[in-house]
Prior knowledge:
Blueprint: H1 2-9, E1 10-12, H2 17-27, E2 31-35, E3 41-46, H3 47-55, E4 75-76, H4 81-87, E5 95-99, E6 105-110, H5 111-119, E7 142-145, E8 148-155, E9 159-166, E10 174-176, E11 180-188, E12 190-195, E13 198-203, E14 207-210, E15 216-220, E16 227-235, E17 244-247
Parallel strand pairs: 1-2, 4-5
Antiparallel strand pairs: 2-3, 5-6, 7-8, 8-9, 9-16, 10-17, 11-14, 11-16, 12-13, 12-15
Amino acid sequence: MTEDLIKKFCLREDACLDEALKIIDCNQKGFAVVTDACDKAVGVLTDGDIRRAFIAGATTKDPVAGYCSKAFTALKVSDSFDKAIDIFKDKRIKFLPVIGDDGRLSNILTKEQMHALLLQDISADLSYDFSTLDESIVDTEVFRRPWGFYKTTVYNDFYQAKVISVKPGGKLSLQSHRHREEHWVVVHGTGTVQIDSSFVNVTTGSSVFLPKGCRHRVTNTDAEENLIISEIQIGDYLGEDDIVRYEDIYGRV
Length: 253
């Protein structure tokens, strides 16, 4: 893994800025690690550093040594993963080179990789191949629906978490799921939840359990405010196609 990291992320301090641009464009992480003639890590260079260099009048043939950050934050291979978590509390730090006892780059951990690791409950130390992680679970899109929108905040093999926002007067379809149960907590607004033939009024702080297979839906009964729900799904399959619709005011049955 180390040689692959060196190829993807490292360049010598006498290399030109255009070489740095090529490496950063290739690794798609926004930075490179600068090394000396003995391959020891002596600095880091981000795409922002290069942009500021060009604004200051640098050319693509200028050496990176004059523009890299030599006072950079890094981890040692002997450090704990807890130390990485503490360092990433600093919002300015987006990545951490892991430096071996010989001073060479041993690994790289980005903040997104750390989040992916924690959310998937993967046990790891700083020798773990973080490049194998699926970082997409911490960066999901907002999906529009006729009743409002939802955003998935966590998605892995164990559970899925969503934020659901239902516009005033909006109503989800009456539906059921074959493979999952759902736990809802209302974090804002008021509404009515149907569970099979029962109806319950909900407001901020209400919690609702939806067993696998039950028919359910929620209606926003407020004329002005969105109804916002925090949803946790647990089951052996969490795909969006695990929805059986029975009624829908938007014609999706």
